[in-house]
Design brief:
It contains 5 helices and 2 strands, in the order αααββαα. By secondary structure, it is mainly alpha-helical. It has a two-stranded antiparallel ribbon. A hairpin with a 2-residue loop joins strand 1 (68-69) and strand 2. The radius of gyration is 13 Å and the shape is globular.
């Protein structure tokens, strides 16, 4: 379940005009935090880091406000993401400077998944 985050970061640094479209695609660093019990993403109900931060922080509390691990809401992880002010509030605010923050979070989420499978 390893991902090459550095490769995506390098691509985006070399092609900054693709940053917003990359975020919209919801892949790699910008995918949803919604693993089910098989390690597959559940795109229909889950939010990305930006959505979790914004919705949880603003108390919107839709399904996209939470991180899901093994098909269950992980409240601690959701709170941690929401409280990280390094994550932008909206997708259009994502810049190249945020890529390392997204990488840090995904390495942490990947480690949690590996631990719980």
């Amino acid at each position: 379940m390893k991902h090459d985050y550095d490769e995506q970061i390098e691509f985006l640094i070399n092609n900054p005009s693709n940053l917003f479209l990359s975020w919209l695609s919801g892949e790699g660093l910008f995918r949803v935090v919604g693993y089910d019990k098989t390690g597959v993403f559940g795109k229909s109900r889950c939010g990305c880091l930006v959505q979790i931060r914004t919705d949880f922080y603003n108390r919107a509390h839709s399904e996209k406000s939470f991180a899901y691990i093994n098909g269950e809401i992980d409240h601690e992880l959701s709170r941690s993401i929401a409280n990280d002010r390094r994550i932008p509030d909206i997708g259009v605010d994502v810049t190249l400077q945020h890529l390392r923050v997204f990488k840090e979070w995904w390495e942490r989420i990947d480690a949690i998944m590996e631990e719980r499978i």
